[in-house]
Amino acid sequence: MNKPAIPLFKELIAVALLGLFFYLFLFIDIGDSVEVPKSFLNLNTIFLSIVLEAIPFILLGVFVSALIQTFVSEEAIQRFLPKNAIVALLPAALLGAIFPICECAIVPIVRRLIKKGMPLHVGVVFLVGAPILNPVVFASTYYAFQSSTEIVYARMGLAFVLSIVIGFIMYMIFKNRDQLKWSKEELVGRVKAEEGLKDVGKIKSTLFHASDEFFEMGKYLLIGAFIASLFQTFLDRSVLIGLGSNEFSSPAIMMAFAFILSLCSEADAFVAASFGSTFSAASIIAFLVYGPMLDLKNAFMLFAFFRAKFVLIFMLVVTVAVYVAVILYQQILL
User: Fold this and answer.
1) Pick from 111, 121, 130: which is nearest to 190 by CA?
2) Is 28 left (phi over 0), alpha (psi -120 to 50) or beta?
3) Which of the given ranges, 114-118, 128-132, 179-183, 207-211, has the highest pLDDT on average?
4) CB 267 within 8 A of CB 140
5) Mean pLDDT across 255-268
């Protein structure tokens, strides 16, 4: 009985701390008696700007995602997919452009789709494409890069092409062999959870899903925004400029940042925009494409739901494909 109360207690503490932070920042006048370091004030400003810009898109994304999760069945999606394995790659990528699902929720959704009969490689296309191609991510990216719209269209174009390429490569390696990792306890727990949500009705179920996703994504947004703020405030700018000036190493560095920061795809554009003055456009694009496809929190979820060999090959394919695509884009179009 105490286990469900522990996560709730942690969430309440997080909300209380965030509320205290905003209250102190907005309403408490420090005055002349306390000298606050300029770097700390700069950190607060950067952190709040990232969070406040991203929250509306987070709210929109989790609400629409919750509606889809409650009212759209996996079988309905499956009926629209062609039977031919290669032909199914294109509509799978287009399907990812319709549903506003970020990478925070995409792994369990793809797992459910595959369990209901979706081919593995089609699930891979949806896994890497949907978190970037969906309309909420496009809107947030456009808002964050209004003065550099080429980054917006490069992100969407590369994500669309790469999702098909990655899906094709994974099909050639695994065909349609089952790569899911299920346990009896997991299946029983999932069925009971779904039955519990059905009992409360679809509207309440939608609200429950939306609130859960908001707090889940909000944690990663706050952590990522704070780390980005720390980088921007305390890291020597000459170091960043040196790292970001090399056309071959800077995309790899920003891909590593994207993996570690584990930002929600509906908000990562605001963090990426804060690096715009120190990293090249190609590096920013690498950050925006790679992060939603593969990050630290996603990796843990993938290892939990899929076989280790599949996950390791998937990570290698995604990393190489994104890096090569960004380098080619940089050499040809930038």
Assistant:
1) 111
2) beta
3) 128-132
4) yes
5) 84
Residue 30, both tokens: 């420090």
Report d(CA 147, CA 105) in Å as an integer: 30
Amino acid at position 71, single letter: F
**Ramachandran sector of residue 193 (left: φ over 0; alpha: ψ -120 to 50; beta: rest):** alpha
Distances (CA, A) of 124 to 76, 84, 129: 18, 16, 8
Phi and psi at 284, nearest 5°, equal: -65, -40
- Cα within 13 Å of Cα(312), Cβ side: 3
**Which is nearest to 14 in space by CA: 220, 208, 207?**
220
Rounded Cα–Cα distance for residues 222 and 9 (Å): 18
Rounded distance between C-alpha atoms, residue 217 and residue 66, angstroms: 13
- State whether residue 122 is helix, strand or coil: helix
| Residue 235: φ, ψ to 5° | -75, 135
Regarding pTM above 0.85, the answer is no
Q: Among candidates 299, 289, 295, which has minimal Cα distance to 324?
A: 289
Which two three-digit tokens encode residue 229? 């703020």
- Start-to-end CA distance of the chain, whole Å, equals 58
Q: Are 290 and 322 in contact (CB under 8 A)?
A: yes
